Amino acid sequence: MTAFENGSGSDGGSGSGSSGARSPLRLSRRSLVSAMGVAAVGFSLQACGGGKGGDGDKLNFYTWDTYIGETTLADFNKASGVKVQTSYFSTNDELFAKLKAGNPGYDVIVPSNEFVTRMRQADMLMPLDLAQIPNLKNIAPEFLGQDYDPAPKHSVPYTWLVTGIGYRKSRVNGTPDSWKWLYDSDLYKGRIALLSEAADLIRLGAKYLGKSLNGIDAATIKQVEEMLIRQKPNIKTFHEDNGQDLLLAGDVDLVMEFNGDIAQIAAEDPDIGFVVPKEGSLLNADTLAIPKGAPRPELAHKFINFLLDAEAGKHIAETILYPTPNSAAKALMPESYRENPIIFPSGTGMDNSEWGKFEGPEQQRLFEEAITRVRA
Amino acid sequence: MSGGETDWKRAKTGFAALLGPPLGWFLLFFAVPMAVVWAYSFGTNVGISDIEISGTFANYARALEPLYLGIMGKSLAFAALATLICLIVGFPVALAISFAPPNLKTWLLIGVMLPFWTNLLIRTYALIALLRDEGLINSGLELAFGWAGFERLSLMNNNFAVMVGLVYVHLPFTVLPLYAALDRLDRSLLEASFDLGAGHLRTIWNIVLPLAGPGIISAVLLTFIPVLGSYLQPDLLGGPDSQMIANVIERQFKRANDWPFGAALAFMLMYLTLFGIALQSLLKRRERPE
Fold first, then answer.
1. Could you give the residue range(s) of every CATH 3.40.190.10 domain in chain A?
2. Cβ contact (<8 Å) for A93 and B257?
3. Domain spanning A21-159+285-326 has what CATH number?
4. Which of A223, A316, B3, B128 pairs as cysteine with A69 (C-beta 3.0–4.6 A)?
């Protein structure tokens, strides 16, 4: 529809360009590729799909941008002789859409937990042979056997994240430890930004109202919708997961964002804080899985096992600063990571948090329609 | 054939050979995908990943609900305003370029097209750097007028910013067709107008504007239609109430995973656009009765 579709096929790396007086522009893993256009994904796979020969010395890895250790792929190459070719997606929907029509050749993918459920229901994932993934023992037990993949049979956890409020300490009163400040108060009028994702907005609104974020009924959706319409004059913007950029640049003082994204800017600016509101929040995990039709399942298992290795996991965590479910890797990390209250939040908010469940397309449609009305 | 003087219209094989590949390309990569999306708009979601073309009109019925009509209306208003601003700003620019000396003209035209060499997204981010609360404009003004108790202007994340973005991006689409029309203008008519005592403004109003009419209509269409389908500017520059219809369509195809409804919305836009183009050709025909 616009020239946006012609985005050059850059494979990202780090944030490009600059914006804002105070800081370079940051794009999180979830926003960079969407920014550069999906073109990138197509190109890199095309480039490597060509030669059929030499099977077994390369692997197609489809993941989020800036979501792996700096040397991880080179290390794997050194250890196994396998060259990993990476392509990026920016949303789970993109991943899903790409695989919906048949696997174009990806061996390992990184879907979030709710999409593991969805892809399992659509029979798009290959069952894992856990005997080939001995490093699964490194994963802390509380991250295994969650509802999205109870066995676990189709996925192993790679990172986890929690949505909360990132804030500028010097500009708020105390700790803004309630969703109230984003949903139901004019105290920070014009200085707050919320995620634009419909499901997140409705679910966290329901949390504020004291309800579970799973099994939300129509009346609650309506209630959250009305609350957001009332709150709209106080909201500066619904951001596309670039909340950390808005916060760092001083455009807003409170932002709904994932802990990993806030941890990255808090490392640069000590005035940045993060809290999981006391009403509780939404827990997510990103996982490693093998899609049906993967050309090299054996290597895929080998690669997944490598990523779950303690030393490899440490390198990954050092780069991306997301919380790791890998307790062996965590043990190797410095205290500044292990004890970081943003990366590993604790307290009432965490205790009240829940894993989100995939509840079918009809529920998503209701969420979406409510938010369209809010923003109309 | 030997003479090589056959009318090309009669040389059927040569004509077909020339027309064939582009026509095939057009059918395969434009008409077919459009037809698929059009078929989706009469479809129903089945399960998680399948669409059944059931011939239902439910998607269109939903697209005609007040909620979506309202957003459509707002988008039309946005597009109309942006087009009007583009015309007002673009006309003097096009006029100036068409009257510039030939070698300067080339440079000026390159200047108009220069932004196309940079990705739209990068240009939009540049606007963010300019407009944001601690951006270049606000910092500059603060530096200049800080002593007088300058309050930061709210330039970002509102409809104003969206309008700035839309006008900035689409201005070349207005200037170029206007320039093409004005450049072809018969200068002797202008001289005649001046000779007969008309002033500059009067000449523009009575001579230039009517003659540039078709060019103005092309400029309006070339600007209005892409503005109507913009989703990047409302997404990146807009505030909580800046969504345009293309944002809603995008969400249907991505997050909402409701392709049939998204297709119906997209085709509503398409019907509207086709209607606009039909109207233009009608006007054109009336202007030049053969």
1. 21-159+285-326, 161-283+345-375
2. yes
3. 3.40.190.10
4. A316
